[in-house]
Specification:
Layout: H1 2-23, H2 29-38, E1 47-51, E2 54-59, H3 69-86
Antiparallel strand pairs: 1-2
Helix pairs in contact: 2-3
């Protein structure tokens, strides 16, 4: 029951931020470049911890724990699409 209450409270508080992030439109190449540089393509926290060439353990990607993960990744995708489609730029450097 507590998990249900926490989920409803969590979604209710973040809904305005989610909606705002989803409605952002990219019409500026400088903003698009900034977003592509600022938002990583892969989770930067995932890594293998090695010692003397032996893998001790693996830290899984924790980005999906971010409640706004999907919206932020969507914003990065919008920026990439703007650069590729509207500006005709090569976006492989950001992939």
């Amino acid at each position: 029951m507590t998990n249900f209450i926490q989920t409803r409270l969590h979604n209710g508080l973040l809904r305005p931020i989610r909606e705002w992030l989803e409605t952002i439109e990219i019409h500026n190449s400088k903003l698009a470049h900034f977003l592509c540089k600022a938002i990583p393509a892969q989770c930067p926290f995932e890594r293998d911890i090695t010692l003397f060439s032996r893998k001790l353990f693996h830290i899984p990607p924790m980005c999906k724990l971010n409640p706004l993960y999907e919206e932020v990744v969507g914003l990065r995708f919008k920026a990439l699409c703007y650069l590729a489609d509207e500006c005709g730029e090569d976006v492989t450097a950001y992939c």
